[in-house]
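Notes from hallway chat w/ T.B., transcribed later so I don't forget. T.B. wanted the structure written out for a chain they're using in a teaching module, and asked if we could keep both sequence and structure tokens in one place. Agreed to drop them here.
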Amino acid sequence: MKNRDLVTIDGLVHKINARVEKEIDCTTCGACCKNLMIHITDEEADKAADCINLSSANFKEQYVEVSAGGQMIMNTIPCHFLENKSCSIYANRFSECRDFPHLHKPHFTQRLFSTLIHYSICPIIYNVVEELKIQTGFKK
């Protein structure tokens, strides 16, 4: 992939992803919620706290850990808010959750390793990568 034209690959991934995302209902899967380390911002923590009727301080005490690099992350995997394969704060979910699996973003080939880590857990990634293999001639 890295030897191919980056703009062309991004175009293919975005086109395939736009179709595949419509076919898969993430709210019936929850695999990402079971497996991802979720980074959050102060603003997102505040919104989530409001959503579950907690103060920001109590929310952070119960649900957040600060990484060695100073980033806030959810303190458990799977996520605290996963209930029956669905997010209990879906309307207020964190941007990292909202953007996953990041296939709509540019520079797909620069994120290939992290994308393939989630290949076996995310049906969107799986289907996009399999279609990409066919369209690029990697898999006939």
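Follow-up for T.B.: The chain has two domains: 1-35+100-140, 37-99. Might be a good example for the class.
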